[in-house]
Write a structure and sequence with these properties.
elongated, six-stranded mixed β-sheet, alpha+beta
């Protein structure tokens, strides 16, 4: 379940105004909240990489690797690649299916339209022949990709294919894998959608939430405290209050130590 943007906004305002420290506008909150969500989202991948190197507790709810992957899973999507015969490569999916209702994956654009989502990271690539079972392609670096054909022992086959990923394009070996021989599917991670606290002006000029046009955080509710602390940290910079920055930073640091100890 997502974190309610109105709850976070009102909590941040309450903490800031309790001591008459200052005020942030809805526009400032939206920009800050979006940045905080992206900070936490990107930290998942570093945390997962770190947890893969340490033993895990043999208990479902205490397995940190599983817990982090669960948080990332909300942003996973999958779609079919298309073959470009003129360029001899496969293009990444233009549409994908994920946990949210979107159809189009955007790779290079400054703004999103309805039904679109930004591409973030490439996952596993699988090839499904017309007859047979799917196989995962091995990802290679450029030097390995161009030298792998030199030996019959390492030469790629349809049973053990490989690919080179450059410029949002997939160069696949063996080259006999083309349109009509099967399908290539790409799993990926999309970026979170921007957080948005929509509002209208009341009779006295006050901000009133427009819930129908607002967009909640896409992070799990377990991240609510972390979200609020990080927004307060940024808010301290906006209103130029070092006490807010120091208090929020200290709490964030302590939480990070507790998570990784």
């Amino acid at each position: 379940m997502a974190i309610n943007v109105d709850t976070v906004y009102k909590t941040v305002l309450l903490i800031l105004n309790k001591e008459q420290r200052g005020y942030i506008t809805p526009d400032e909150f939206n920009k800050t909240a979006t940045q905080v969500q992206l900070d936490i989202f990107e930290q998942y991948f570093d945390d997962l990489n770190q947890q893969l190197r340490v033993p895990q507790a043999d208990f479902d709810y205490a397995d940190r690797q599983m817990n982090i992957d669960e948080k990332i899973s909300y942003f996973k999507a999958i779609g079919n690649c298309t073959y470009d015969s003129s360029g001899g490569h496969w293009s990444l999916p233009s549409s994908a299916v994920g946990s949210q209702n979107f159809d189009t994956i955007i790779y290079n654009a400054s703004t999103l339209s309805s039904g679109q989502a930004y591409f973030y990271k490439l996952g596993a690539i699988t090839y499904t022949p017309l007859t047979g079972y799917p196989v995962e392609l091995q990802r290679l670096q450029r030097n390995d990709f161009y030298n792998i054909d030199q030996s019959p022992l390492t030469r790629p086959t349809k049973e053990f294919p490989c690919y080179l990923y450059e410029g949002n394009k997939l160069y696949v070996k063996p080259v006999s894998i083309q349109t009509g021989t099967g399908t290539i599917e790409a799993s990926m991670i999309r970026k979170p959608f921007d957080v948005f606290w929509a509002y209208s002006l009341g009779s006295q000029g006050q901000y009133i939430q427009d819930a129908s046009n607002s967009f909640d955080f896409e992070l799990e509710q377990s991240e609510q405290v972390n979200v609020i602390l990080r927004i307060l940290q940024y808010s301290g910079i906006v209103i130029r209050d070092p006490q807010i920055i120091q208090a929020a930073s200290a709490e964030i640091q302590q939480n990070e130590i507790n998570k990784k100890s």
